[in-house]
Amino acid sequence: MPPTYEQALEFLFPRTTTIKFGLATTRALLKSVGDPHTVVPSIHIGGTNGKGSVCTLVAAALREAGWRVGLYTSPHLVSFRERIRVDEVPISEAAVAMWTERLRPLILDRRATFFEATTAMAFADFAARGAEIAVVEVGLGGRLDSTNVVRPLVSAVTKIERDHMKYLGDTLEKIAGEKAGIAKPGAPFVIGEREPELVEVLRRAAHRAVARLDPSARADVRVLPPGYEWAGPLALAGPHQRRNAGVAYGVLMALPPRWRPDGEAVVRGFADAWIPARLDRRGKWLFDVAHNPDGIRSLVTALEALRPLRPVHGLISILGDKEWPDMLVQLDRAIDRGVLTVAPTAASRGWDAAWLRRWLGEPSRPPARAAWTLVPDFHAALREVQQGAGTVLVTGSFHTVGDVMGELGF
């Protein structure tokens, strides 16, 4: 009997606790299903923040231009199936079960991680469903990320910020060097970063990445000007999305003529493209997956312009390896009450409640404008944050937003 969808996820999800850099296992998995990543042309998008939005915008414009588009993003909010879509239709439960069973022996033999397995599944599903082009979001870093098996039409890096420093390096320059590793010979490499020093690091790292694959080639680097933003209609809310849309437009214009959408298709796609949990307002609820200091800065700036109904109650849970004190200090500017909790799906990776309680009581921490409370029990925190009028902001991680959306039935 083939496994059910639920059994497939029970097999895959324990492998999320392992992070393994390198491409050999992903290549072996893909080879076992016919190397579908070599059949479907792709666009490869990396960066610290904004890459999910850029992928969504690029895919939307390509669909408007008439292409059948595969979209691979991570992580998901509520359902695993969100990660793998063709023309916005998620992978079916039956396909998840089938591809898991097909890949299972090699997953076990190679001790493949969750992301290695799902990357192979994504390309297999794209080929099986007749995707004509794929938009692929980097999972973590770039140079050694599983998605870096592709030879894309265009690759891009949105921006560089401090995140995943345990794996990518403890400086912005080191992080940039890893992320530029997705540059490939013969494919334009679009840089959305604005800081001149980091742009230069990205440029040099891109040339090194290309030279490793083809010593006779030079990277085709295309740097977007600092003020380069999309000025047309845009469904995605927040000032930072104007820059993301500018990067998406730069990616689209770097495509070979055959694939490049016309201006009308771009305008239609950008005007309609939407991605959940990015300044996502649903009644009194406002969801945003900001999960590092730069993301929180963008969220706070957007809230100042949005001016949601007061008081603003924040329900916040952040992963333990993030720079959460800085994030909370920034959020204090934008909310009236903060309820700190632990998201159930991130319990093993979440912040330490005892440490957090000590930090809240620390007299040397910056003076707070908002009222802050710690309610470690997620369901109790969810009940508490809904008391009273105003707006409920849910943020801090994909896990936090996904858990709340799942609980509320969104």
Structural commentary:
Helix content is about 40%, strand content about 15%. The protein has about 400 residues and is an alpha/beta fold. The protein has 2 domains: about 5-270, Mur-like, catalytic domain (UDP-N-acetylmuramoyl-L-alanine:D-glutamate ligase), CATH 3.40.1190; about 280-410, Protein-Tyrosine Phosphatase, Chain A (Alpha-Beta Complex), CATH 3.90.190.20. α8 (about 195-215) links the parallel β7 (about 190) and β8. The longest helix is centred in the first third of the chain and has 18 residues, at about 95-110. The model has no long low-confidence stretch (mean pLDDT about 95).
- Would you give the CATH topology of the largest domain? UDP-N-acetylmuramoyl-L-alanine:D-glutamate ligase
- Derived structural class: alpha/beta
**Major sheet strand order:** 4-3-2-5-1-6-7-8
How many β-strand runs? 14
Radius of gyration: 21 Å
What is the CATH first-level class name of the largest domain?
A: Alpha Beta
- Assess the beta-strand content as a share of residues: 5-15%
Oligomer: single chain
What is the H-and-E element order? HHEHEEEHHEEHHEHEHHEEHEHEHEHEH
Biggest sheet details: 8 strands, mixed
The number of distinct structural domains comes to 2
Query: In the CATH hierarchy, what is the architecture of the largest domain at level 2?
Result: 3-Layer(aba) Sandwich
N-C termini distance: 33 Å
Average of per-residue pLDDT values: 94
**What is the fourth-level CATH superfamily of the largest domain?**
Mur-like, catalytic domain
Number of separate helices: 15
| Helix content class | 40-55%
